[in-house]
Write a structure and sequence with these properties.
Layout (H helix, E strand, L loop, with lengths): L4 H23 L6 H22 L6 E10 L4 E10 L6 E5 L9 E7 L2 E2 L3 E2 L3 E5 L7 E10 L8 E3 L2 E4 L5 E2 L2 E2 L2 E2 L17 E10 L3 E4 L2 E8 L2 E11 L4 E4 L3 E6 L5 E6 L5 H18 L7 E7 L6 E4 L2 E5 L8 H10 L7 E2 L6 H20 L1 H17 L29 H23 L1 H15 L2 E2 L2 H11 L4 H9 L2 H12 L2
Parallel strand pairs: 1-14, 20-21, 21-23, 24-25
Antiparallel strand pairs: 1-2, 2-8, 3-7, 3-11, 4-5, 4-8, 6-7, 9-10, 10-18, 12-13, 14-17, 15-18, 16-17, 19-20, 22-23
Protein name: Peptidase M1 membrane alanine aminopeptidase domain-containing protein
GO molecular function: metallopeptidase activity; zinc ion binding
Pfam family, one: Peptidase_M1
Length: about 500
């Protein structure tokens, strides 16, 4: 069989190599198995490589330089926002003034390229005529923002100052017009904004601790006052949460993201750390790396807004621990670091896009931490609500809704109550993603979500981007996506019932 001793030697050497490899493979086998391990390493490599390339994008965009003073004695923040706009599409500028539900932002002076100019401002928006200029401009806006004594998005309660949507934000330009600021309701997110670079300097009482959308650049104290400066590139707005009484822990992920967890009640710190750690790992494995260098998850005082998200910040009221599904909503808010911050949306135009993905991601968190049976039970519970026309809203769970004839793809402005809003913007998309997963299988489904995420980080997406990602994986699944988004509610239930009630 062997023509020489040399051939026999090489044959024996090859057999020894394969035998050694098999033995090592058995003894060194990862807990999750070699296939799952290699798949996770591949996902990690893909995520890491795309993370670098996305950070290298250098297209021109808006830059904010904000210098502000927090006057806690008078519950007021005053300051200037210098906004550099590289390309002006028309002969006027519009800025949104968001916190008008309490007292509106006061605009005191506007300067255009160094010269004081007239302006028009109401409780909702600021308009600045440009006098025919249609090129790059620099606008300096002098403003003051009253801060209510309340646990609202913008407000102060129990020693915590929540500074969100606190300065004029450049409006969104679409289809040849500035989009007017959406009318706010006491639910959801009536917000629109584009990516921008931020440099923010704040004067505040020295004993305050801050969690923000940016990275700390410098800090100094002068007597009982402190000055801090933060920087953030390509984010949608800049929020700051500060005050006293925090208990904190922090760590750095293997992907290099600094994660901070802070609570008001120290006994909740380890519990929250575990939730955040598991959620971040789940979303990194399933979608890819967080596009930003930091993420802070904060337990806010009792009575504050239930749960909400800002760039690199996830907030929830400590009341959430008393809710049956509170852990789910914490995982949901953390998921917004992927779906809203990293991959952005115009929340007021298509809220189902980021809310549906964030809520389905929270189910993936449950699946990873509690097992497949727990995931299936949550889907069964969600289907029962959907089939029976019951609300998914945390504060009005199980309340009957009127959704006959309605599709899912609707803007925020179409809704007047939170029960219908949560049913169509959260519950229906969650079931849509589960249905797509059932039809596509796990490999194709998670490839679809991962490619949608990795190809669109640090960008603002719409429905067409989601459809393109699905088409790239399996164009035959596109009609199912459109069924869930466009078809009247009762027809969707009739057509998909068989897959949910096997």
């Amino acid at each position: 069989m062997f023509s020489s001793k040399k051939q026999l030697f090489f044959y024996q050497l090859i057999l020894s190599f394969f035998a050694t490899a098999i033995i090592l493979g058995i003894f060194l086998r990862p807990a999750q198995g070699w296939i799952a391990y290699l798949q996770s390493q591949w996902n990690h490599w893909q995520s890491s490589s795309l993370f670098v390339s996305n950070q290298a994008v250098t297209d021109a965009h808006v830059k904010y330089q904000i210098d502000a003073d927090l006057d806690t004695a008078n519950s007021l923040i005053t300051g200037t926002a210098v906004v550099a706009i590289p390309s002006v599409p028309t002969d006027n500028l519009m800025f949104y003034l968001f916190p008008s539900t309490y007292k509106p932002i006061a605009i005191e002076q506007v300067q255009l390229n160094g010269k004081t100019v007239p302006f028009n401002a109401n409780a909702y928006q600021l308009t600045i005529p440009l006098g025919g200029q249609k090129k790059s401009v620099q606008v300096k806006i002098h403003f003051s923002t009253p801060i209510p004594a309340a646990g609202t998005r913008l407000g102060e309660t129990q020693g915590v100052w929540s500074l969100t949507y606190w300065y004029p934000i450049l409006a969104v330009w679409q289809n040849g017009n500035w989009i007017p600021r959406p009318h706010p309701y006491p639910f959801g997110d009536p917000f629109l904004m584009d990516l921008a670079d931020y440099q923010v300097r704040l004067k505040y009482p020295s004993h305050f601790k801050w969690y923000t959308s940016g990275t700390l650049v410098s800090a100094e104290s002068q007597g009982n006052q402190s000055f801090s400066e933060w920087k953030a590139d390509r984010i949608r707005n800049f929020a700051l949460i500060g005050g006293t009484g925090w208990h904190e822990t922090s760590w750095q992920t293997s992907e290099g993201v600094k994660v901070a967890v802070a609570v008001r009640n120290e006994s909740n710190l380890q519990k929250l750390k575990t939730i955040v750690d598991n959620a971040v790992k789940t979303y990194t494995i399933r979608f890819g790396n967080d596009a930003y260098p930091s993420l802070s998850v904060l337990e806010m005082p009792t009575g504050t807004t239930f749960a909400h998200e800002y760039p690199n910040l996830a907030l929830f009221s400590d009341d959430i621990w008393n809710w049956k599904n509170g852990e789910h909503w914490i995982a949901h808010e953390i998921a917004h670091a992927w779906w809203f911050s990293s991959v952005g949306t115009y929340k007021a135009l298509n809220p189902w896009l980021d809310e549906g993905l964030a809520d389905y991601s929270a189910l993936l968190y449950t699946e990873r931490t509690d097992g497949a049976a727990a995931y299936r039970q949550m889907i069964a519970d969600d289907w029962a609500l959907f089939r029976d026309g019951k609300s998914y809203a945390p504060n009005r769970y199980g309340t009957p809704v009127q959704v006959t004839g309605q599709p899912a793809d609707q803007p925020y402005m179409n809704f007047t109550n939170e029960t219908t809003y949560y049913y169509l913007m959260y519950l229906r998309p969650v079931l849509m993603y589960h249905d797509l997963r059932s039809v596509l299988g796990d490999q194709k489904f998670f490839n679809f979500l991962q490619q949608f995420y990795l190809k669109n980080r640090l960008r603002t997406v719409n429905r067409q981007n989601l459809e393109q990602a699905l088409t790239d994986v399996d164009p035959n699944a596109l009609p199912l996506l459109r069924l869930w988004l466009d078809t009247p509610n009762e027809q969707v239930i009739a057509q998909v019932r068989g897959r949910f009630e096997k």
